[in-house]
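User: Structure please.
Assistant: Input sequence and predicted structure:
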Amino acid sequence: MEGLPQNLVVNDPTEGNVTITVDASIYPLEAVYGAAFIFIDRCYVLLDRPRGGSFSVTLTPKSTPADANALRAMTGEFANELLTQAWRQKILEENRVILETVTTQALAGAAAPPTLDDLAAFDFSEESFDDPLGIAMSWEEKYKKKADPAAPAPAGTADPSAPVPVTGGSTGSAP
C-alpha cells in the first residue's frame, strides 16, 4: 500500500483485505483486542501471532469488496484506534490502585448499614463541612416562614412581654 510501511501492512487486492503487523512490545494484547472490537461490526477480524514479538491483524470488509483507498483508510483508522486503546490501557494501569480503592470502599459501604460504633465515631459537627461559596443550607433554613414585622400577630398568640390580665372573684356558684 502506498504511503504505509511495506513490512507492517500487506494488502491482498484479490482477497480485498489488509493485514497489519503490530509490535507486541509497543501495543499490549488488550489494546489489540480493543481496537479489533471497534471494527467487528463492519469487518471480519482475524488476530494471529506469527512470531513471538508481534501480532497480525487481518481486516476483511463485510460489505462489497473494498478498493485500495477504502482499505488504506481502514488501515489508518485501525492504527489510530490501536493507539487510542494502548493509551487507555496505560491510563488504566496507572490508576488501577485508585479504581480498586474506590470500588472496594463503595462495595464495603453498600454491604451493610453502619454499626452503632461507626455512628458514634462519625463527626456530625458543622465544622467538618466546607462551603466556600456559601451555597449549602438546610431545608429548614431555606424554606422557613419569614415573619412580617408590620403584620399583626395571629389570633390566639400572645406577646410574651405583655402583662397577663388577672380577674378577680368567683365565676361559679356557692353552695
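The beta strands are 9-12, 17-23, 43-51, 54-61.
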